[in-house]
Amino acid sequence: MPQTETPGTEAAPRPRLRWWTELPLILLVYGCYSAGRLLARGDVSSAVDHGLTILRIEKALHLNAEHPLNRLFTRESWLGVPADFWYASLHYLVTPAILVWLFHARARHYRAARTWLMTSTFMGLIGFTLLPTCPPRLLSAGHGFVDTMAQYSSYGWWGGEASAPRGMGGMTNQYAAMPSLHVGWALWCGVMLWRYGGTRVTKTLGVLYPLVTALVVMGTANHYFLDAVAGVAVMGVGFLLAPRVMRAAGLVRARLPRRTAPVAEGTGSPIVSAGCQTSAGERIPRQRASQLDTAAGPDASPSDAGEGAPAPAR
Q: How far apart are CA 73 and CA 55, in angstroms?
């Protein structure tokens, strides 16, 4: 008799992704991101000191690309206005769109990609809390930066005080410049497009999107060059931690009680009762003749019917 698997020892199937469970999780993470930015305002003087320290380090290393880019975006409105729209909008549009695309078209890779993004986002919140940093646009005018968001605010929906809708600038933390999650999330989007896009166009967009975002955040004076570097570093560490986070989540899920679905009648299960099992060719005594006729075919001899079959008429 062929061996069959002992009931209850089957490998647990991987939980199927459901949008109604994924959406609240993503909204929860984004809510924590927004609340963290709002609560971790920090002391303004400390934030300014941190920003000036970053600026001095960049000048010592000849890395201060913010000044020439900011002058260019300030002088050329055909560059500055689209850059402000890019900064104020795509951060909140492209990232969710790629998450939805992965969920529907690349479900096998969605869970790891989502975990990577969320892990890195929480790390960014730690950076905002521990190192509040004044962006270049909020430094005094003597440092040579122009706030393009304020300069071109009449062209867009944002206000002059922040990259938020008009009248809502006070509801965001403007001193959360380090690290730049604009650059970090754009890098994540670029990697997803490069790895799973499948076409030359998507691979090209995967390279251009994070590069252009890095130029935009510096040209609009919202981030320093080192903020962008820190955003890339956060995504790198998040990428390394994501498998461990997934394993930890799997262990937690395994400890939760699971509901066992009842076996429907007539499904052909080999389990008869009390753990007894039958082989493929074994029949149960007094089985209904109609079932046997169907299985055996019209030419089957009566002797094949098993015990309890009616004897042929003579």
A: 19
In the numeric block, which tokens belong to residue 133? 């940093």
Alpha helices in 106-224 (DSSP H): 107-130, 148-151, 181-196, 200-219
Give the integer Cα–Cα distance in Å for 101 and 95.
Answer: 10
Q: Using one digit for the tens of pLDDT, what is the confidence trace for 79-111?
A: 999 999 999 889 889 998 999 899 888 888 898
Structure tokens that stand for 61 in this block: 């290393």
**Structural Rg of the chain based on CA atoms:** 31
- Cβ atoms within 10 Å, residue 152: 21
Cα separation, 172 vs 37, in Å, equals 7
Which two structure tokens, joined as six digits, stand for 174?
Answer: 């403007």
For the four alpha carbons of 285, 291, 295 and 301, in that order, the dihedral sign comes to positive
C-alpha span between 145 and 139 (Å, rounded): 7
Q: Running DSSP on this structure, what letter comes out for residue 277?
A: B
Give the C-alpha separation, 178 to 106, whole Å: 32
- What is the model's pTM? 0.72
Q: How far apart are CA 269 and CA 7, in angstroms?
A: 11
pLDDT of residue 27: 67
Q: Please choose, from the candidates 22, 12, 38, 26, the residue with its C-alpha nearest in 3D space to the C-alpha of residue 250.
A: 12
